[in-house]
User: Which sequence fits this backbone?
C-alpha cells in the first residue's frame, strides 16, 4: 500500500453532528485504476464519508490528500475541480431538459454574448454517449428516458470532467441485469483509463464482480480493508455486522393448506398475457423476472390498481372482481408496495398512526379516535414483527429501512389479510435486516397467510420461496418447486432462453 | 453521434420532424387564438381590420410586457405578485419626477431622468424580492405577496392618494405615436418579445432558468449559482413591470395610485394560458405571447359584440380552466406514448 499510487487518500476522518459521531477516524484510499468498494450497514457512515469526499460536508478532523497533496474541498464544485465526481443515488437531473443540457448543466459551452454553443455541446455529448454505447441522442428529453438511461446521463456527466475519482453510490439500485452488464463494462473502461473508482453497494455479488478491494465501516468506524480476490461474502458480512448470518433456507414442506388464491388466464393489455398460477395458504410463491417482465403489474391487478383485460381471479374458490384497492382489502388481499417511502408510508407520521392508518375508522370511541385501541394494535405488531423504534411516537421517517418495511408489513397484517403480496421486500435495506425480513416472510407464511414475493434479487427469491414463477416479457415461462430451482435454470427462464422443461 | 452534428439547429428546435401538428401540441394556446380570431372575424363587422389589430396589440402591450418577465420567473419555479403595484410605483415616480422644478429647464430631456428612475424602482424592487427569496428561503409567493401590499401602500403614501398628470406633452404623445407603420408601443412589445425569446431559448442564462425550475437540487449540484440567478430573473420581471407602468402612463398622460390593480392576476393568467407551469421548469415566450393575444382578442372581440364586461370575466375564467385541462390531456397522452 504505497502512498505514491493512491490518487485519493483520506486519513483519520472524524465527522460529528450534534450528539452523533458519524465518522470516527476513518482511513480510506483509492488507487489509480482500481475499484474500491465501500460497504457497511445503513448508518455505518458510508454516506457521510461520501459526502465528505464530494465536498458536501467538512470533516472535523483528519485530512484529504489528492495525488499526495493535501486538498480542501469546501463545496461540490471544488471537489469537481479536484477531479472527484459523485454519481448520485437519487438521480439529480432536470427532467424536462435534453440529455445534452443535463450533461453540461451548469457548464454549458458558451459562444459570444452568453449564447449556448449548441453545436459544440451536441458534438461533445454525442462523443460521450457513443463511448457509453447509449442508444439515445443528445437531443432526447431526459424525462422520456428509463431510470437506467437516466443513470447513463449521470455517468456521461461525470465523463465531461477530467475525473480522477468517480464515486458510484448504489448505482444498480434500479437497473435491470442487462443494464448492469453495461454499467460494469463502463466501470472497467474507466478503470483501464486510470480512474480510481469508489463503489458503494449493498449487493454482495456485484461487489465481487467489479471490485478489487473492499473497505468495511461499522458504526462510523473503520473495520478493515480486504482484497476481493482473497476473501468471501461471509467474511465481509461478518465485518459489516459483527456476527455471521444464518443464510440457510428454512423452507419447510408439507404444511400447506388449501388453495387461497387462484388466477387463470389473466391478461392486462400489453403488460402481461395469459398468466395462471395459484397460491396456497402457508406458502410463499416468488415471482422472478427482469424489470418490465410484468410482475409488479400482476400485483397491481390483484390489488385493484389495474383492470385486467381477460382472465379470472378466485379467492378461496369464489370468483371475485377487484375494482379498487378498497375492494382488494375488503377481500383480504394486501400489497406491500415496491417503494415504501413513496407508496407505503406517511413519513412524517408516527409509527402507531402508520400502522393503524387503513383501519382508523374502526377504532373510534364515539366521534373520537381511541388512543388506547391504536396503541394496543401498535404494541401487538411491534412485538410480533420485532420493530425497533424508541416508542410509538417516533416518526417513521427517522427509522432504518428495515424497520420502516416492518411497519408497512405490520400495517397490512393489521388488516387481517388472507393474501399478502410483497413487492421488492428488501430494496435499500442492509444485510442484517434483510435476513430478518426474510425470516419474517417465512413466519407469516407459516402462520397461514398466502404470500407472494416479487423480487429482482435472485438470492432473495431462492431463500424465501416455496415455489418460484419465472416471467419473461409478460408471460410465465416456467414454474419451479423449491427443490428444482437453482440460479442457472432461473436465469435461463427469465431471459427467454430454453423456453421449456429441458433443464 | 456524427450524424446529428450535420444539422446545426439548436436543441430546442428538435420538434421539426413532427411538423405543424407537434408545434400545435406544444403550444395549444395558438390553436385557441386562431379559433377565436376566426370566430370574432365572422361574428362582428369591425374585428377584422388592421386598425383593430393594432388596437389589440397596444391594449395588450402592458400585460404582455409584464408577462414576458413573469414567464422567466415562473419557469424558475417562482412567481411575482408585486408586478401590479410596481406598475403604479414606476408610473407615479416617472410622471412626478418629470415635473420636478430642477428639471424644468431641461425641455424634453426631463423625461430621461424620470424614466430612468421609474425603471430603476422596478429593477431595485425586483432585486429586493429576489434577495429575500434567496437569503431567507421564504417562498416567492409569500415574499412578493408582502411586496404587493407594501409597495401599493408606499404608492399611496408617495402620491398622497392623488393622480399625477404629465405636463410634458412629448411624454403623452409617445403613447399615441407611430413608428414604421405601427404604433410605437406595439413595437416595444414585439421587440422585447423577440429579445426574451432569444434570451430563454438560446443563452446559457435561459438554459439555467429551465434547469433551476425543473430540479433546483440538480442545478445546485451542477454548480449553478441558483440564488443570484433567481435574483436576476426577479430584476427582469421588475424591469418589465416598471416599463409597463411607464408605457401605460404615456397612454393615459397621467398616473393614478390605483394603476395596475389586479394586473398580477391577468399576467399570471396569460402566462399560464401560454403553457408555463406554476411548478416551474416548463414554459416559453411563444406560448406566453399566444396567451397574451388570447386575452387581448377575447376582451376586444367581446367588447365589439357588446358583451357586458362581467360576462367577459366569466368567459375568461371558464376558458382558463378549459385550456389548461386540454393542455394536460395533450401532455399526458404524449407521456403515455413514450412509455410504451
Assistant:
Amino acid at each position: 500500500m504505497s502512498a505514491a499510487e493512491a490518487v485519493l487518500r483520506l486519513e483519520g476522518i472524524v465527522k460529528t453532528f450534534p450528539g452523533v459521531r458519524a465518522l470516527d477516524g476513518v482511513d480510506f484510499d483509492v488507487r489509480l485504476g482500481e475499484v474500491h468498494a465501500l460497504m457497511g450497514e445503513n448508518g455505518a457512515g458510508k454516506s457521510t464519508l461520501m459526502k465528505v469526499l464530494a465536498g458536501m460536508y467538512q470533516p472535523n478532523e483528519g485530512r484529504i490528500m489528492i495525488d499526495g497533496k493535501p486538498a480542501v474541498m469546501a463545496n461540490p464544485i471544488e471537489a469537481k475541480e479536484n477531479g472527484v465526481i459523485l454519481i448520485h443515488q437519487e438521480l439529480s437531473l432536470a427532467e424536462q431538459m435534453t440529455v445534452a443540457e443535463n450533461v453540461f448543466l451548469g457548464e454549458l459551452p458558451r459562444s459570444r454574448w452568453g449564447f449556448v454553443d449548441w453545436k459544440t455541446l451536441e458534438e461533445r455529448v454525442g462523443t460521450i454517449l457513443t463511448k457509453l454505447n447509449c442508444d439515445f441522442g443528445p437531443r432526447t428529453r431526459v424525462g422520456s428516458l428509463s431510470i437506467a438511461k437516466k443513470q447513463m446521463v449521470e455517468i456521461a456527466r461525470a465523463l465531461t470532467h477530467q475525473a480522477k475519482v468517480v464515486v458510484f453510490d448504489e448505482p444498480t439500485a434500479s437497473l435491470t441485469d442487462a443494464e448492469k452488464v453495461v454499467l460494469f463494462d463502463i466501470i472497467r473502461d474507466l478503470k483501464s483509463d486510470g480512474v480510481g473508482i469508489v463503489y458503494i453497494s449493498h449487493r454482495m455479488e456485484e461487489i465481487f464482480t467489479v471490485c478489487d478491494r473492499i473497505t468495511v465501516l461499522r458504526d462510523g468506524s473503520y473495520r478493515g480493508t480486504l482484497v476481493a480476490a482473497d476473501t468471501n461474502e461471509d467474511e465481509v458480512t461478518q465485518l459489516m455486522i459483527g456476527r455471521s448470518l444464518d443464510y440457510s433456507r428454512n423452507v419447510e414442506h408439507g404444511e400447506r393448506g388449501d388453495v387461497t388464491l387462484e388466477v387463470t388466464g389473466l391478461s392486462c393489455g400489453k403488460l402481461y398475457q395469459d398468466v395462471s398460477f395459484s397460491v396456497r395458504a402457508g406458502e410463499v410463491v416468488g415471482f422472478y423476472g427482469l424489470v418490465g417482465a410484468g410482475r409488479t403489474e400482476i400485483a397491481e391487478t390483484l390489488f385493484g390498481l389495474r383492470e385486467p383485460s381477460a382472465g379470472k381471479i378466485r379467492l378461496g374458490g369464489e370468483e371475485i372482481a377487484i375494482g379498487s384497492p378498497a375492494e382488494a382489502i375488503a377481500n383480504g388481499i394486501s400489497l406491500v408496495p415496491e417503494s415504501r417511502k413513496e407508496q407505503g408510508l406517511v413519513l412524517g407520521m408516527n409509527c402507531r398512526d402508520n400502522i393503524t392508518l387503513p383501519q382508523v375508522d374502526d377504532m373510534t370511541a364515539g366521534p373520537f379516535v381511541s388512543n388506547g385501541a391504536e396503541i394496543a394494535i401498535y404494541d401487538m405488531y411491534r412485538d410480533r414483527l420485532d420493530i425497533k423504534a424508541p416508542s410509538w411516537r417516533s416518526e417513521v421517517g427517522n427509522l432504518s429501512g428495515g424497520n420502516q418495511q416492518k411497519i408497512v408489513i405490520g400495517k397490512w397484517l393489521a388488516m387481517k389479510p388472507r393474501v399478502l403480496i410483497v413487492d421488492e421486500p428488501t430494496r435499500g435495506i442492509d444485510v442484517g435486516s434483510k435476513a430478518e425480513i426474510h425470516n419474517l416472510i417465512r413466519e407469516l407464511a407459516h402462520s397461514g397467510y398466502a404470500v407472494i414475493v416479487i423480487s429482482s434479487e435472485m438470492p432473495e427469491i431462492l431463500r424465501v420461496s416455496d415455489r418460484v414463477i419465472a416471467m419473461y416479457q409478460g408471460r410465465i415461462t416456467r414454474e419451479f418447486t423449491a427443490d428444482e430451482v437453482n440460479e442457472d435454470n432461473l436465469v435461463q427462464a427469465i431471459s427467454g432462453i430454453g423456453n421449456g422443461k429441458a433443464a | 453521434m456524427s450524424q446529428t452534428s450535420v444539422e446545426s439547429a439548436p436543441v430546442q428546435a428538435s420538434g421539426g420532424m413532427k411538423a405543424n401538428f407537434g408545434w400545435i401540441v406544444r403550444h395549444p394556446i395558438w390553436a385557441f387564438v386562431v379559433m377565436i380570431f376566426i370566430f370574432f372575424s365572422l361574428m362582428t363587422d369591425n374585428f377584422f381590420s388592421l386598425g383593430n389589430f393594432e388596437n389589440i396589440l397596444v391594449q395588450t402591450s402592458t400585460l404582455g410586457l409584464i408577462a414576458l418577465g413573469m414567464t422567466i420567473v415562473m419557469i424558475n419555479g417562482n412567481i411575482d405578485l408585486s408586478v401590479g403595484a410596481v406598475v403604479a410605483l414606476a408610473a407615479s415616480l416617472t410622471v412626478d419626477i418629470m415635473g420636478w422644478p430642477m428639471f424644468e429647464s431641461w425641455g424634453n430631456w426631463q423625461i430621461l431622468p424620470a424614466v430612468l428612475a421609474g425603471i430603476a424602482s422596478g429593477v431595485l424592487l425586483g432585486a429586493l424580492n429576489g434577495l429575500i427569496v434567496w437569503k431567507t428561503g421564504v417562498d416567492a409567493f409569500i415574499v412578493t405577496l408582502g411586496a404587493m401590499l407594501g409597495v401599493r401602500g408606499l404608492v399611496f403614501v408617495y402620491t398622497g392618494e392623488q393622480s399625477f398628470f404629465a405636463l410634458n406633452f412629448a411624454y403623452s404623445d409617445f403613447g399615441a405615436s407611430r413608428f414604421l407603420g405601427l404604433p410605437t408601443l406595439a413595437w416595444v412589445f414585439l421587440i422585447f418579445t423577440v429579445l426574451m425569446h432569444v434570451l430563454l431559448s438560446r443563452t446559457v442564462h435561459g438554459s439555467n432558468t429551465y434547469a433551476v425550475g425543473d430540479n433546483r437540487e440538480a442545478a445546485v449540484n451542477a454548480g449553478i449559482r441558483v440564488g443570484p440567478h433567481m435574483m436576476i430573473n426577479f430584476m427582469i420581471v421588475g424591469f418589465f413591470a416598471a416599463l409597463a407602468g411607464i408605457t401605460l402612463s404615456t397612454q393615459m398622460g397621467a398616473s393614478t395610485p390605483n394603476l395596475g390593480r389586479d394586473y398580477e392576476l391577468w399576467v399570471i393568467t396569460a402566462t399560464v394560458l401560454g403553457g408555463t407551469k406554476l411548478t416551474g421548469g416548463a414554459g416559453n415566450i411563444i406560448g406566453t405571447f399566444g396567451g397574451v393575444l388570447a386575452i387581448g382578442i377575447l376582451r376586444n372581440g367581446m367588447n365589439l359584440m357588446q358583451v357586458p364586461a362581467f360576462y367577459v370575466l366569466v368567459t375568461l375564467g371558464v376558458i382558463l380552466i378549459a385550456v389548461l385541462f386540454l393542455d394536460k390531456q395533450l401532455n399526458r397522452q404524449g407521456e403515455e406514448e413514450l412509455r410504451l
